[in-house]
């Protein structure tokens, strides 16, 4: 750290110290003069080191022009630009300024010592120092105030005793505050630990919940596939069954049509004996056809509570044959033909 920054940090007892410090600043390094201090013919001061640095720079400029007889070199004062001609001793031929060096020593000692604290005085007796404490009024005062002033009827105590007692009380208060701060800090640590546990538990619960829902989704997906397969199987089975029934009905319709044609032909027979003979054979064929139709229609539910063969010769509409499975559609199929996998 520079000397200027070092000494400017010390406290000042009056503005004169600040003004004095400004006078002790080297114009080259802008810090407090470093001994030895040389004085120039123009009465300005420089650190010998700073003077040598500026002389070395000037000698390079004046070297090409030559020097005066008996001169070792020259340079200009950085403060007033006065030309300084050096003798054969160079910078070491300049005179030291011992007065400035002594002032620097005194300034450093004063800055290191710092300002002395002044003892407070009584407001009523300006030249009397405060040396006692009024216990009744709880204010510090002087001896004259106790003897002749407004505190002569009050209880007083030595200032040192009050100082020691109040300092002890303040020390105890500081200790209590520090202990309270320690307890609060420990409580804060406990709260932070609890918050950390809450975060960890929340993370674990979320993970467990996600795992459970994943398992449930897998079970539901598997069940969905099984139910879709069952619906497809029922569709194929029932469709095949209905196709076979449709083919059987078509075959019986064809047989019935042939029987109708035969019956119509017999109706045109003019001879009664032949007609009765043909009628007997036709009746036998009609009974066979009705039984065959009943075997087919038993697989279908009645329409408006009436079976398809009702009204035919030899057929009773009240009879109600049943399918082995109870209905045409069987288990898992509703009356409108839709498939319910839950049945």
From TrEMBL:
<dbReference type="Pfam" id="PF00643">
    <property type="entry name" value="zf-B_box"/>
</dbReference>
<keyword id="KW-0808">Transferase</keyword>
<dbReference type="GO" id="GO:0008270">
    <property type="term" value="F:zinc ion binding"/>
</dbReference>
<dbReference type="Pfam" id="PF13445">
    <property type="entry name" value="zf-RING_UBOX"/>
</dbReference>
<keyword id="KW-0963">Cytoplasm</keyword>
<dbReference type="GO" id="GO:0070507">
    <property type="term" value="P:regulation of microtubule cytoskeleton organization"/>
</dbReference>
<keyword id="KW-0863">Zinc-finger</keyword>
<dbReference type="InterPro" id="IPR001841">
    <property type="entry name" value="Znf_RING"/>
</dbReference>
<feature type="domain" description="B box-type">
    <location>
        <begin position="117"/>
        <end position="159"/>
    </location>
</feature>
<dbReference type="GO" id="GO:0005634">
    <property type="term" value="C:nucleus"/>
</dbReference>
<feature type="domain" description="RING-type">
    <location>
        <begin position="26"/>
        <end position="81"/>
    </location>
</feature>
<dbReference type="GO" id="GO:0005737">
    <property type="term" value="C:cytoplasm"/>
</dbReference>
<keyword id="KW-0493">Microtubule</keyword>
<dbReference type="InterPro" id="IPR033492">
    <property type="entry name" value="Trim54_Bbox2_Zfn"/>
</dbReference>
<dbReference type="GO" id="GO:0005874">
    <property type="term" value="C:microtubule"/>
</dbReference>
<dbReference type="InterPro" id="IPR027370">
    <property type="entry name" value="Znf-RING_euk"/>
</dbReference>
<keyword id="KW-0514">Muscle protein</keyword>
<dbReference type="InterPro" id="IPR050617">
    <property type="entry name" value="E3_ligase_FN3/SPRY"/>
</dbReference>
<keyword id="KW-0539">Nucleus</keyword>
<keyword id="KW-0175">Coiled coil</keyword>
<dbReference type="GO" id="GO:0016740">
    <property type="term" value="F:transferase activity"/>
</dbReference>
<feature type="region of interest" description="Disordered">
    <location>
        <begin position="314"/>
        <end position="343"/>
    </location>
</feature>
<keyword id="KW-0479">Metal-binding</keyword>
<dbReference type="InterPro" id="IPR000315">
    <property type="entry name" value="Znf_B-box"/>
</dbReference>
<keyword id="KW-0862">Zinc</keyword>
<protein>
    <recommendedName>
        <fullName>Tripartite motif-containing protein 54</fullName>
    </recommendedName>
</protein>
<dbReference type="InterPro" id="IPR017907">
    <property type="entry name" value="Znf_RING_CS"/>
</dbReference>
<comment type="function">
    <text>May bind and stabilize microtubules during myotubes formation.</text>
</comment>
<dbReference type="InterPro" id="IPR013083">
    <property type="entry name" value="Znf_RING/FYVE/PHD"/>
</dbReference>
